Predict the structure of TonB-dependent receptor.
Amino acid sequence: MFSGSLLAQQTSLDKNIKNIEQNSLTTASNKNSGKSKAADLFDVTISGTVTDNNDQPIPGATVSVPGTSIGTATDLDGKYTLTIPDNSSVVISFIGFESQTIEVGNQSTIDVSLTMSTQALDEVVVIGYGTQKKKDLTGAVINVQAEEVMKYKPTSVSEILRTTVPGLSVGYSTSAKNVPSFNVRGDASIKADATDESNANRPLIVLDGVIFRGDLAEINPNTIASVDVLKDASAAAVYGSQATNGVVIFTTKRGEYGKPQITFSSRVGLVTGARRQQTHQGGDDVLNWLTDMNETITNSITDPWTRFRDYNSIDPQYQDDWLAANGIPGETDPAAIDLARINNFGFLNNEIENYQNGVSYDWQDFLFHTGVRQDYDVSVSGRSERVSYYYSLGYSDRESVQIGESFETITSRLNLDVNLAEFFTIGANTQFTYQNEGNQAIDNGSFRVYSPYDQPWKNGMPQTRENLNDQAAGSNISNPYQDPSWNTRSYTRFMINPTLYASVNLPGGFTLRTDYTPRFDVYKRFDLDEKGNPQKAVDEAERRYNDYFSWQSNTTLNWDKSFGEHRISFTGLYNAEKTKAGKPGHLQIAFHLHLHLDTMQYNLG
């Protein structure tokens, strides 16, 4: 399965390599101008190799004639060939490097060495509890900025990681919540917690400099300004053993100078199955399978005839024996003979009726559908000399391919920074999340064993819960529609995750910062199984309440000093954390109807 709303995107390098495979960018031509005219226009062919300052080839570098559509891209060895007009110049460029413009003149071979862009080297990368310029890095760090992030119009944080961060393995999830597994070093590496298979290799998540204990569904992708992935031990050392599987750092957006900016975005997408699964169809397909299965069970598959086989397919000398074995000796009516064979397979009344009428179903039509996903976001931001603010509000309503499964969430974020003095800043990064997992979904895990001659409802009856079949025919599994149809539930979750901080610049180039981050996490669960479900002997209501409170506090001291071309950085950290689970609340009520008595029994726990 895959989500139709998830776009299979490529990084800019992937796109360039794709251009390499296609061999060139579009060149201008005129079919009616004739061979001699084209030769006058393109009469110089140049070739060469593009390398970096370490003499390593640069694949995917662009070689083009400015002001025209004439251009090409270097191959995997950094080589190119291009035919251009006489007396032209070419521009050689690649992301992260300084572009070069070269006058061709009489040259036919032009080899170019590109130098790293000064701007790229000066980009700030978040590492640990501080930042560094990219040119000063020695560890394995990947940085992706907001422009690259928003290029792909992500609908979830997992999409950001999958489409923009190279070297990060991100799975896929068809659930409405859409939170797949992901890891930095691959699933084959040593697991941090062998007892927790799903999260054993999950990297540590850091949000705005603070370790984040929630899941990715809590973070609105539209608030992300940059993503930094720390891969090696040196880059993530400050986090200790928690960073065994690497660190993924999300930095959210802040206000910018200028007039206040109001941004609104909306997206509507569809999620559907990649293809229909192969199941047994009505007619000979399912009947032959049932025949083979029953003959295998009865160890009669090598016999010249069995009562499970089609009467007309066996040797005439055994047909009288077949009729006798099926309890209809001497029968000549084809319909009665056919029904006798069907009775060997334990068909229920619904199945027999549909078989005789030539009606069959594919249970995938009852258990899967095309889900709709909607995302709406609005943000307000601005900045003055003293105050920077960024506020966002997001709403998502998502369905999955599984009928009945939905996920609704509201996210809100406020980033506020106030400069009380040139040396003293306070602020708050506050996130609120509400989640609703919706009603009970219809289980679709066993659709392959359901009979193609059965459906969830009684034949010819309105498709209401009162007319549901008790058991799915052809299996020992109950009708998957029964429990969800008689169940009412509310699964909600509230999370508040604020960070309050203060930062002061001290003499000598020292910066002291302290922050405090409490996290409030409240689960509310309500289930009601109503009267009327034939699968439930007892009508029951259940309510659960769980709350969790945790906090962490960080105090960091940073010192950064430049000596000519040399820089020294120092970071000291004190961290404290505590997690507390509140006493869970649980109320369960079972309703037992006693004969001639209008009483109910309550079980409280």
Observations:
- The longest strand covers residues 539-563.
- The mean pLDDT is 79.
